[in-house]
């Protein structure tokens, strides 16, 4: 049987994929965290088809800055690929000093980030369990049906950093 999507779930425009697409551009998104998860997402995209393939690279809690860098060193396959990250000047500088091509994501409102992701066909790698868990649980607020509840969104935030970068790189 197929897993259903519960009522009020924001993102219903996604499905699983097995094999990473080849010959498509990709980049990474990072959402820093200690108590909240430290998340690294690889985002591969096909602009013409509006397909966004996302894969969980890391989703870990209670990592100190040095451990975050160590995880990135082991799991990011190419330091020269663009990494867009949440704002943290100290973390960003540590990654730059280690040779990563990283810079701060430009931020949109929650509503705008959500609206933009809904314009894509999102494909989630079959082994990206935390991304799927967030997508299943990310819901609209009962008080404001246009605004998602600020929970279950750490991987989603990293994905939105990637999406915004793709959109602004291609359409300016």
**Overall strand count:** 7
Number of helices: 5
Structural class: alpha/beta
How large, in whole angstroms, is the Cα Rg?
A: 15 Å
The poorly predicted ranges are: none
Apparent shape: globular
Going across the major beta sheet, what is the strand order?
A: 1-7-4-3-2-5-6
Distance between the termini: 43 Å
Mean pLDDT: 92
> What percentage of the residues does DSSP assign to strands (E)?
15-25%
Explained architecture:
- The protein has 172 residues and is of the alpha/beta class.
- The chain contains five helices and seven strands; from the N terminus they run E-E-E-E-H-E-H-E-H-E-H-H.
- The chain has a seven-stranded mixed β-sheet, with helices on both faces.
- Strand 2 (26-31) and strand 3 form a beta hairpin.
- Helix 3 crosses helix 5 (154-171).
- The longest helix has 18 residues, at 154-171.
Gist of the model:
With 172 residues, the protein is an alpha/beta fold. Helices cover 32% and strands 23% of the residues. It contains 5 helices and 7 strands.
Key words describing this protein structure:
alpha/beta; seven-stranded mixed sheet
Q: What is the secondary structure topology, with strand pairs?
A:
Elements: E1 14-17, E2 26-31, E3 38-46, E4 51-60, H1 65-75, E5 83-85, H2 89-97, E6 102-104, H3 110-117, E7 121-125, H4 129-137, H5 154-171
Parallel strand pairs: 1-7, 2-5, 4-7, 5-6
Antiparallel strand pairs: 2-3, 3-4
Helix pairs in contact: 3-5
């Amino acid at each position: 049987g197929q897993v259903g999507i519960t009522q009020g779930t924001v993102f219903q425009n996604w499905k699983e994929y097995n094999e990473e697409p080849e010959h498509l551009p990709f980049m990474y998104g990072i959402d820093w965290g200690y108590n909240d998860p430290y998340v690294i997402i690889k985002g591969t995209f096909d602009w013409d088809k509006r397909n966004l393939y996302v894969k969980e690279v890391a989703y870990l809690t209670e990592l100190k800055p040095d451990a975050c860098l160590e995880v990135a060193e082991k799991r990011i396959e190419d330091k020269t690929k663009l990494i867009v990250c949440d704002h943290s000047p100290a973390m960003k500088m540590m990654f730059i000093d280690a040779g990563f091509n990283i810079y701060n994501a430009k931020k949109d409102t929650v509503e705008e980030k959500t609206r933009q992701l809904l314009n894509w066909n999102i494909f989630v790698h079959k082994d990206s369990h935390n991304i799927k868990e967030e997508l299943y649980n990310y819901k609209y607020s009962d008080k404001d049906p246009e605004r998602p509840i600020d929970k279950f969104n750490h991987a989603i935030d990293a994905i939105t950093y990637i999406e915004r970068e793709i959109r602004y790189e291609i359409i300016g």
